[in-house]
Fold this sequence. Notes:
Layout: H1 3-6, E1 7-10, H2 14-20, E2 24-29, H3 35-46, E3 50-58, E4 63-65, E5 68-70, E6 75-82
Antiparallel strand pairs: 1-2, 2-6, 3-6, 4-5
Amino acid sequence: MIQSQIIKKPLITEKNSILAETGIYSFEVDRRASKTEIKSAIEKFFQVKVQSVNTLQCRGKARRNRFGISKPKYWKKAMVRLMPGEKISIFEGA
Length: 94
């Protein structure tokens, strides 16, 4: 897979901004991507050294509407721990 296809978007929330101060950054990634593919994509795209990658399969909540229940969107979340002293600039000031 290509790096731009693996990393879909950074997840910038209040909880993730607190984790970013400790060197852990969260991204929404492709559901088929493995940990090694995610690690190499982050290292090449942001020019940082990755210490570890944890992944989570997130299930979307089922929504009710007037036509019944809509199917949830499933997605994959990657929590990337960087080596000490490394930072990703897009999370700074968020």
